[in-house]
User: What shape does this take?
Amino acid sequence: MNSTNPHSINCTVEKNKLRISIPSTEIDKLKDDNYSLYENNRILVTSNKLFQFINLFSSEFYDSEANSYNLKISLRNHKRIPKVITKNFDSSIYKSRFLYEDIATPFFLKNVLPSGLVLKDYQEEGIEWLLKSKGRILADDMGLGKTLQSLAAAATYIRDFKAKSVLIVCPPSLIANWKNEISKWLPDFCATCIYDTGSEKDFIWENIIGHSHFFITNYEQIRDTPKILKNLSFDLIIADEAHKIRKNNSKVYKAIADLNYKNFWALTGTPIENKSTDIINLIKIVNPRINFNSFNKLPDISKRAQIRKYILRRMKSDVLTDLEESFEINHEIELSPKQRESYDLLLKEMFSAEQHEILSIYGKLKATCDIDPVSNESSKIDFVMELLEKIIERNEKVVIFSFWIKPLEVLSAVINKNFGNDQSFLFTGSLSKDARHKMIQQFSNPKNKCPVFLCSGKIGGEGLNLVVANHAIFFNEWWNPSNNNQARDRIVRIGQEKKSFIHHIYTKHTLETRIKEIIKEKIDINFELVEKTVIKEMRG
Assistant: This one.
């Protein structure tokens, strides 16, 4: 054993444990000195980390008779993470656990969350509920803090049950958000982001497990399951936006189901997207031991009873008494003359088309409802510009969603022409991760007066917090209500301090009328099977 400061710190090895004794007179030096204690060329603990823990838990480490601070660290044969990993993983692959595991692992921690954080009552109930069972689906309405609840529960699980491998799986766009949330709420915990592992995937996964508290990756990485993953065991898996694995015949679903895990928590604001089997497939993941083959034959009351065992769902209206009111406004407008002419021609074409051509014509019909492909006329754009004038006059901000990129690009050009080049942000999937983050920060900054955020519905529906805006305009809508709701709740969520207005724009006497009907049908299915099972009391 050696130390760069051997006179102030006494280190001995007793029964595979490193005993560290520090005279009380020397304790303050630890904060400023930068040295490490070594064993067989392994860093066991650094002086500043020692200071943090001793300062935080002085009563537990202080020996009054010896007038010194004492603690023991287990000696383990940890492998150093090879250099190859640093280029495949997040650059902040933490200095921690493989360097000084016992100090980094928060078994010592009395409080897993910052003392300044005040959880709402329903969030505390959610944390307790997650910890009561091995398989759970937290299906709270969007914007109620599912991420925070799951992290607080996971941290408690790590602390109390000494879990060593927590895997978080989410869409690619949310990896950075999870990392930021862990840094914010769990500053003493380590998180490693796993992006593209490429040909090194087996080697990387084998060497990374055990060297961090949280591992964050995306569904694509799991779908292309490295062989090593099937041989690893995870104490806990948290699946965010879990409705993405609802299809039991998909590669992602099968890859997740093949993993070895003790506990599985699925997070989703939309447990049913299309049909009742969506929620059943999720339940099969969180509890693989149950058999739901006969589920569809059950009456609705029995289906709800089965679902209630595994799902916790609270609505904003149930738990957020202080949330500002939101208003849903439907705007039905006529197509412009040129749009109607193009639309009717496409309808005639569809009636005489071959079956393999129909889908293409359908896409053209939908696009024509937004913008005429010949003249570029758009009654929607004209209407949106009128709305924007009123919103901007009130010094308020707005997010405009479109599930197709072209309308956003055209809108951006029109806004720049009429209001100025600095009056809108165009947020699409073509932007880099860093560019997206910077754009969100700029728009969310109260000092930035840019009022319009043009957002692709497919990427804007996940993980964004845009409560600086209190208006959302749906230029078009997807036939899946969960996508629309996810986008809507970028502004209708905790932190929204103003009345919010959600504008839905439909063109009369077009297929958009049918899309609106489909959305309502799917919402009704969700209500029958999920909303009626809302758990207002804690249940086992």
Observations:
- The radius of gyration is 27 Å.
